[in-house]
């Protein structure tokens, strides 16, 4: 419909260095176009040095009448596993508990019903 066709080579290595031609024909004649492709090996990813987890910002708390949000930043390689606890009992994600761990290291725990979970010592390990 837009006058453009696409050729996608999913395994270009299989074709190697080559000239690819396309020919279009109709009742008025034909047209040919070509392109030379050169397949290069993907450079290997350099290995990243492993790094012990460390918090890059202190744990911060925002408390309202019925909600608590705890947030911080962490780094480490491989990406650390985050465990939130309340009085040494693991907190699991639920309808009223949102746990976030983004690739940039931002972590947060949002407890929407503080009365249900009560007061205590919240930890992130």
- Report the order of strands and helices: HEEEEEEEEHE
Question: Could you list the spans in which at least 5 consecutive residues all have pLDDT below 50?
Answer: none
Going by helix content, strand content and strand pairing, the class is mainly beta
Major β-sheet strand ordering: 3-4-8-7
Alpha plus pi helix count: 2
Please tell me how large the radius of gyration is.
Answer: 28 Å
Q: How would you sum up this structure, described in words?
A:
By secondary structure, the protein is mainly beta. The chain has helices spanning 12-15, 114-117; strands spanning 18-26, 29-37, 51-63, 68-77, 84-86, 89-90, 97-101, 106-111, 122-124. The strands form 3 sheets. Strands 3-4-8-7 form a 4-stranded antiparallel sheet, with no helix packed on it. The termini are far apart. The model has no long low-confidence stretch (mean pLDDT 82).
Summary of the model, kept short:
By secondary structure, this protein is mainly beta.
Write the topology of this structure:
Layout: H1 12-15, E1 18-26, E2 29-37, E3 51-63, E4 68-77, E5 84-86, E6 89-90, E7 97-101, E8 106-111, H2 114-117, E9 122-124
Antiparallel strand pairs: 1-2, 3-4, 4-8, 5-6, 5-9, 7-8
């Amino acid at each position: 419909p837009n006058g453009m066709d696409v050729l996608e080579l999913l395994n270009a290595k299989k074709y190697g260095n080559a000239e690819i031609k396309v020919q279009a024909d109709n009742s008025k004649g034909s047209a040919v176009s070509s392109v030379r492709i050169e397949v290069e090996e993907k450079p290997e990813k350099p290995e990243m040095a492993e790094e012990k987890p460390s918090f890059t910002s202190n744990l911060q708390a925002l408390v309202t009448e019925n909600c608590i949000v705890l947030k911080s930043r962490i780094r480490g390689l491989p990406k650390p596993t985050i465990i939130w606890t309340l009085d040494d009992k693991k907190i699991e994600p639920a309808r009223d508990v949102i746990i976030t761990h983004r690739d940039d290291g931002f972590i947060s725990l949002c407890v929407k019903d503080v009365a249900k979970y009560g007061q205590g010592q919240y930890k992130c390990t």
